[in-house]
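FIELD: query
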Amino acid sequence: MMRPNLIITVSLLLAAFILLFSGCGDAPTDPVEQRGTLVINGIMPSGSPADSVWIMLDSETLGTFANPHQTSVFAGNHFLEVKSFVYVNPDSSTDYFSAPQYVEVLNNQTVIAEFQLETDIPIAPYAGAMAPDFTVFDIASNQISLADLSGKIAVLYFYSFT
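FIELD: result
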């Protein structure tokens, strides 16, 4: 009579032998690169298109381009920021901003992302933005503001109770 450990060992060796000499199927093929097209359009407060747009895609600055700008990107979710600068004269410009957006681009599809540009910096909260300053009380009734925590690691825990 064989011992249980010996039976398991022989079974594992037999399975490894079969896998080694029979193969595990076809070798993987090179993945197909899935790409889509993203059209970025900045709209001025007057409703007219901006002349040019400065674009940041997934925390990488792409640069300044004629508006609208079309680019090929990998399919998936992307984080976009758009700005525009209007030069009144060579020494002065007016900056226009828009809240960032998440945009999903599908394979072989074109997505149009429109940004409403304003002269004021958009107020957070939105994903990826700096949090606006606020003041709260901790459980010991001490007043704490976000500015007090600047440069420190802070964990905010939001909960609800009834």
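FIELD: remark
The beta strands are 35-43, 52-57, 60-66, 69-74, 76-89, 92-97, 101-105, 110-116, 135-137, 143-145.
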